[in-house]
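User: Hey, my collaborator sent me this sequence without any context and asked if I could get a structure. I don't really work with proteins. Can you help?
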Amino acid sequence: MIEHIDIRNFQSLQTVDLELAPFTVIVGPSSSGKSAFVRALSTLFSNRRGTDFIAHGTNTSVITATLPSGKVSLARSLTAAKNKYTLIPTGGEPESFTKLGGDIPSEVSDFIKIAPKDTVTLAQQFDKPFLLADSPPQAAQVLGSLTNVHVIFESAREANRQRLSSSQTLRTKQADLASIEVRLAEFDALEVRQDQLERAEESLKSAVLVQRSLEALGAHVSALRDTKTAIDDARPRAEVEIPSIEDLEASHSRLSEFDLLISELKSASSVAKSLKVQIEDEVKAEATLEENYSALLAELGTCPTCLQTIP
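Assistant: No problem. I've predicted the 3D structure and written it out in structure-token form, which is a compact way to encode the shape of the chain:
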């Protein structure tokens, strides 16, 4: 969007310095320069050739447009070699383009975002009134783009999209709710079933206790059967004569006396062995004394009792 236009020495426009808005209306009496202003814009956008646009008494006309990205100007001179476009990017270095011929440099087209093949429509004095001759939809579209009403349209479309999405979500959630309600109905008798389950668990515990009692009773019955079988097997041996209590007590007394005699015999045997050892020691000692006595007599050579010479 062009924010500012500056025109010097273009036809009847010697000096024009004008701020532009998204929608700018230029009014004035006839021959006040309105058409010249439109031709100046057309010349800038299309590089219209010729020197009849240069104001009388001057050699050069300059048209400069200010955009958000910088400035672009076209200088038209009576001398063709001096015709040139100049780009002044915001914060950048100026760049000039000469030898234009009838074309617009691609750098200029890219800068103003209007390709050479594009047609810029500029209304003239006797053209149809702006927008009034267009259809209502076309006028609404143009006015919407100029007044940013398209933001409202976009918001409305986004709101409608969200409404449709919310409606779809609501239908899905309602279906889920219906499904959950059906499942909840299955649990209406949950308390009754829980009570039945508790009673069944108690019955199961009682059945387990009864089973254990039956198993223990079966073990007792088996033990009784084994005992009966053992008794039946022992009955033939029960016919042997059983000694009396007196006989058993007499036998026990004799057995005690026998044990005492065996104990005394073991003690006497131990004493005898001790005496035998002492006798053997005495015999050895006596033999040792005899040997020592004989050796002593041999050393003396004469018996002290009989005074005989010992050979």
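In plain terms: The beta strands are 4-10, 13-19, 60-67, 70-77, 84-89, 95-97. You can pass these tokens on to your collaborator as they are.
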